[in-house]
Design brief:
alpha/beta; Rossmann fold; 8-stranded mixed beta sheet; 5-stranded parallel beta sheet; 33% helix
Length: 399
């Protein structure tokens, strides 16, 4: 499965080189993009809707009057991190320069605030025409990035500047324009989220307050930076992230079993899940009646992080999390260093969860500590922001 996260809209105008955008679509997927294709009516004469749906794996809307309940020109504009139009014909360039919105694609462009890349492709005479030259100048002044066409053979025997550029050149422009870099492309990142539960009987369990929000934020951020992500979730109610491999578990032993299989194949493990320290020894297959409730016998769960770190290969990175109930920063830092050392981690994020803080919240604050004894104090920020800060540290460790 391709890594996913960033959403890109690929507009296709009505030129013969529309077929080349089929390969562009595949290469964009390789870069970690979810790609929605919006072909103009004219382009469908060259490449049909069925082809775009088969290649993208997504529904393709071709006009303003389809799927109107979802208002496609607004929803697609808001959901896309980047818009690439390839090929961009002389006619489409003229429409965009004039601010026209007479079809789905031009409506989306006007409604979007995302970066926009144009890939002109047309006959040399059309490209050098004064009207096209002026339109391109106007669009550049408005913030559009234009990938200059290549020189070469055109339709028939014509030769000149106006040819659809190499896909590699377009991908380079995309990676320069996107706000988030793809610095984790090709990396396999294993992430845990949520809180494990240890059953007492079919009704009751021992659990914790972890919502899984931080783990899911990390998974989305890693995928957005090009990583292939496997998310192991424990008892979360959060929606599955499209394109990310997700495995659901309940207990610590189930999580340990999944990680034992997956860890040898990953470049990094981010253990953000809150794993129960103990399990119930006297589990009952039937509901224990209230009047029969008594002592619950406990036994220690395996220390998943410590176990995995002992089998860590050269080049692998392990990031741990530690939830403490101390408001004293020095005590928090000492606890973080102790766990970093005892579990042989590369990075640890330690925070204070006293009074119900952090768990279930969209905000977090704490300390990032690494195995070089660096300490980064994290003020109250969103879990999304923390995810990118942690991934920046992870990238530096991966080299």
């Amino acid at each position: 499965m391709f890594p996913r996260g960033r959403k890109l809209l690929l507009g296709v105008a009505g030129g013969i080189s529309a077929y080349k955008s089929c390969d562009l679509l595949r290469r964009l997927q390789d870069e970690g993009f979810i790609v929605d294709v919006v072909p103009t009516a004219a382009s469908l004469n060259f490449v049909g809707k069925a082809t775009w749906e088969a290649l993208s794996g997504r529904n393709v809307v071709t006009d303003l009057w389809s799927d109107v309940t979802n208002v496609p020109h607004i929803s697609l504009a808001k959901e896309s991190d980047l818009i690439v139009i390839a090929p961009a014909t002389a006619d489409l360039l003229a429409k965009l320069a004039a601010g026209r919105a007479d079809d789905l694609l031009t409506n989306i462009v006007l409604a979007s605030t995302s970066p926009k890349i144009l890939v002109p492709a047309m006959h040399p005479e059309m490209w050098s025409n004064a009207a096209t030259v002026e339109n391109v100048k106007v669009l550049k002044e408005r913030g559009f990035f234009v990938v200059e066409p290549a020189e070469g053979r055109m339709t028939g025997s014509d030769f000149g500047v106006g040819r659809y550029p190499d896909t590699v050149k377009i991908i380079e422009a995309v990676n320069k324009s996107i706000q988030q870099s793809a610095d984790l492309t090709g990396k396999r990142i294993l992430i845990t989220a949520g809180g494990t539960r240890e059953p007492i009987d079919p009704i009751r369990f021992i659990g914790n307050r972890s919502s899984g929000k931080q783990g899911f934020a990390l998974a989305m951020a890693a995928a957005s930076r090009g990583a292939q992500v496997h998310l192991v979730t424990a008892n979360t109610d959060l929606p599955i992230i499209e394109g990310i491999t997700t495995t659901a578990v309940e207990t610590a032993e189930q999580m340990a079993a999944v990680l034992a299989v997956e860890f040898p194949h990953c470049d990094a493990l981010i253990m953000s899940a809150a794993v129960a320290d103990a399990k119930v020894l006297n589990y009952s297959d039937i509901k224990i009646k209230k009047e029969s409730l008594g002592t619950v016998e406990l036994d220690k769960n395996p220390d998943i992080l410590k176990s995995l770190s002992q089998s860590k290969k050269a080049g692998q990175v392990i990031v741990g999390f530690a939830a403490e109930t101390s408001s004293n920063e020095s005590a928090l830092e000492k606890s973080g260093f102790d766990k970093l050392s005892s579990k042989s981690l590369d990075i640890i994020y330690v925070n204070n969860v006293s009074g119900g803080a952090i768990f279930g919240s969209d905000k977090t604050e704490g300390l990032i500590i690494d195995n070089q004894k660096n300490v980064i104090k994290v003020p109250e920020i969103s879990k999304d922001t923390l995810s990118d800060i942690l991934l920046d540290q992870l990238v530096s460790k991966l080299g």
